[in-house]
Amino acid sequence: MNAQSLQTTLSNLNIGGLRYFDSIGSTNDEALAWAAKGARDFSIVVADEQTSGRGRLSRKWFTPAQSALAVSLILRPDSRLRPHLSRVVGLAALSIAQACAELNLAPRIKWPNDILSNGKKLAGILVETTWSGAEVEALVIGMGINIHRESVPPAEFLQFPATSIEDELGNKPPAREEILRGVLSALVEWRGRIGSDAMIETWENALAFRGEQVQIQAGNQSAVSGELVGLESDGSLRLRDARGEFIPIRFGDVSLRPAA
Ligand code: BT5
Fold first, then answer.
1. Residue having the nearest C-alpha atom to atom 11 of ligand 1
2. I want to staple 132 with a disulfide (CB 3.0 to 4.6 A). Which of 44, 76, 78, 137 is the partner?
3. What is the pLDDT at residue 256?
4. DSSP per position, the chain
5. Residue in 21, 61, 147 to alter for ligand 1 test, most ligand atoms within 8 A of Cβ
6. What does the pLDDT read at residue 252?
7. In this predicted model, what pLDDT tens digit does every residue of 204-238 receive, in sequence order?
8. Residue with the nearest Cα to atom 30 of ligand 1?
């Protein structure tokens, strides 16, 4: 993978700009800085290796060389996207899931930001923003996708089991550029329909643990348990507690687990 192979493979996608690095700290940091300096809509930062890849709450994201996709996509909200910014993590999750389904995997979305295959984490998403006064100026959608076996971190690094596309397929995956093209093509398609009911329904139908009991932990607060029913129209999670009452779980740094 290099800048030329990415330009060639993504040539039909109207990419705003491309910055490629053999090695970088975090593609999200680069994309946030670029967005603040005026990067065009749909620009991407791609790295072969990240030395300080980030998850939420400054958790580490593992991206060893030649094995994974680490991409940050910059979106500048237009009038269609702006009313639905809370759906953007779903936009990314759906797009990664759709690209994996095209490879004949059966991905599920562990709300809000993980893609699972056979109950193991295959990809993670980190959405960050730049602001202009009180308005979101740009969104940076960081996507880390495990492609080859070598991208899967050692077990002691993980709270949740992980896998890669190669592990799940049982044979060689397509080139990383091709997989990225699949993700970005799906994202272009779903971005055009971000306000639609179909977007929420498709996202909801792809959720992991639907109809099952789950536990949600947000920071130091006590955990909330209930049946995972689906999504609210803003993309919040809808649980039903033991008394049958619906509880919306807003985004934020929550973690979802199947109930013990
Ligand atoms: C995430 O956070 O899952 C978001 C990951 C986003 C990574 C992308 S890569 C491109 C862009 N640039 C960045 O610097 N970041 C974005 P979270 O839900 O907080 O999960 C983090 C946890 O996942 C860690 O604490 C580990 O336990 C686990 N983990 C780390 N690397 C992993 C990997 N490669 N595969 C599976 N799990 C991993």
1. 142
2. 137
3. 81
4. --HHHHHHHTGGG--SEEEEEEEES-HHHHHHHHHHTTPPTTEEEEEEEESS-B-GGG-B--B-TTTEEEEEEEE---TTTGGGGGGHHHHHHHHHHHHHHTTT--EEEETTTEEEETTEEEEEEEEEEEEETTEEEEEEEEEEEE-SGGGSPPGGG-SS-B--HHHHHSSPPPPHHHHHHHHHHHHHHHHTTTTSHHHHHHHHHTBTTTTSEEEEEETTSPPEEEEEEEE-TTS-EEEE-TTS-EEEE-SSSEEEEE--
5. 61
6. 67
7. 999 999 999 999 987 777 788 999 999 999 999 99
8. 61
56-102 confidence digits (pLDDT tens): 988 999 999 999 999 999 999 999 999 999 999 999 999 999 999 99
Where are the chain's structural domains? Answer: 3-205, 213-258
Looking from the CA of residue 26, the nearest atom of ligand 1 is 14
Q: Which atom of ligand 1 is nearest to the CA of 124?
A: 3
Distance 142 CA to ligand 1 centre (A): 10
Fold of 3-205: BirA Bifunctional Protein; domain 2 (3.30.930)
Separation of 70 CA from ligand 1 center, angstroms? 10
| Mean pLDDT for the chain overall | 95
Class of domain 213-258 (CATH, top level): mainly beta
